[in-house]
Amino acid sequence: MKPILYLIESTDDRLEDSLPKGLWYRQKFTLGQLAQKFQVRYFTSDSRTFQSEMPEGVTHCFSPFHTSVYGIRHILYYLFLILSSVQWRGSQGVLHLIGVNIPFISLIKRLSDLNLVTSFHYNWAATTRMNYHFIQPKSLFSKFIQRSALKNSNVVICATLRLQKIAEEEYNCQKTIVLPNYVNTYMFFSSKPKHPWIVFVGRLHWSKGVDTLIKAFLLISDKIPQHELLIVGIGEEQGNLENMARGNANIHFLGPKPYSRVAEILNSAELFVLPSKTTEGHPRALIEAMMSGCKCMVSDVPGSSDVLIDAGTPEWIFPKDDPIALGDMLCKAICNPTALQREYAEKSFSDQIVLPAYLKILESWIIGQGPE
């Protein structure tokens, strides 16, 4: 019989949210890969079952206690995890925490008596404090929660070397492994010919800097009249951004798109921009755009800039919140093809390379102390 993988998502990742936004396909693919090796128990903070969406071998676990009230909903989910963990004790399995923002993980680990593997995809504590400016309780307690998740882990899977350094130096984690996010190479590949599209994919939140991208495009649109700016995603800033873009027929807000459609857009696009104002972890949209053969440019914030430096293309990093610099860079990029980013993505982020390594890490912590 296969061992059990208790896969715990944060409250930020609910199927109720990801399905309408077209983000579910990637996680479904990952779950299908995990189910080849494990009996997967997939825990989310949804208010109803999504078992019909699960791949074979995956059981969707959701709390019978739920409410739509923000904050209370989170607490009920944590209570559900704590109560469930008592039942896991004695099983042949492993806990796998996606992210570092689940409190009480030390209690959950103690009650279950299982090894804990944690995925550290971005510095949630630092990003939360920057994005919310201490106006929410999670900003005040974010570093404590992140510390608890990292310190109680038997091994921390870090998406980048920078995150590994944070885990080891700031949180004194003893066992860390660097393993980046993967790209599904069957979906993301370079199509020919490329269309004159400049693309952004992500949440329309002030921290993503989409206003900087729109300002830059408005500055240069008369110089590149054949190019269109495609903005994929939704968020609280959409109204303000649409007002800013009003009057320019070459700026298009496409809203949320299914994952397959996002892949089609990136595969056909010439340019991709990630103009973040605060920080990123290991941005999936960026590495997917690189695999798609887009010429990618990012702002000089931790996370996304690290990827382009590692890819050998630091010349495509611009000062954050600087539309003039971004506009100049866009004009130069249109005339300067590069294959370095795609080559780097193929050798570093291919699902055929990353996924087997990921499964091996999880398997090694079912019994004993994992790999030396």
Walk me through the structure:
The protein has 15 helices and 13 strands. It is an alpha/beta fold and 372 residues long. The mean pLDDT is 92. Helix 11 (284-291) links the parallel strand 11 and strand 12. The strands form two sheets. The chain has a seven-stranded parallel beta sheet. It has a six-stranded parallel beta sheet with strand order 10-9-8-11-12-13, with helices on both faces. The protein has two domains: 4-182 and 351-364, Glycogen Phosphorylase B (Rossmann fold), CATH 3.40.50; 195-349, Glycogen Phosphorylase B (Rossmann fold, 3-Layer(aba) Sandwich).
What can be said about this structure in brief?
The protein is of the alpha/beta class.
Key terms:
single chain, 372 residues, alpha/beta, Rossmann fold, 2 domains, seven-stranded parallel sheet, six-stranded parallel sheet, 15 helices, 13 strands
Q: Determine the CATH superfamily of the largest domain.
A: Glycogen Phosphorylase B
Number of helices: 15
Q: Mind telling me which CATH architecture of the largest domain this is?
A: 3-Layer(aba) Sandwich
Q: How would you write the strand order of the largest sheet?
A: 3-2-1-4-5-6-7
- The proportion of residues forming helix, as a percent range, comes to 40-55%
